[in-house]
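[Backbone geometry]
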Amino acid sequence: MEIILLCLYGKVTVIVIFLIIYLYWIWKKVRLIKWEQAPGDTRDWIRNHEKNINKIIKIISGIGLIFMVYCIVIPAILDIPTLVKQEYTVTEGIVESWNYSLQIKSQY
């Protein structure tokens, strides 16, 4: 159980670090794509579209971070009181599967 908790809170730590880096990028207005470093044949196109490219990259990465915070970080934070009190339960059992496609085929 400790390994599972370590992996979960390790993921949370990495996501929080990425979130801090992302907020730093937004606050300092870091240019992720720079036209000066582009290859010669695409340099003019990148120079004209640099702001839009950087905005799109920041928006997509922000949406991804919000999704990860919503799906991983918030549930992990809500589990902290249960972990402190050690009231969590471990469920064990046998996984059985049923092939429903064979049952449907046999009916026809």
About this structure: The chain has a mean pLDDT of 84. The CA atoms of residues 19 and 32 lie 16 Å apart.
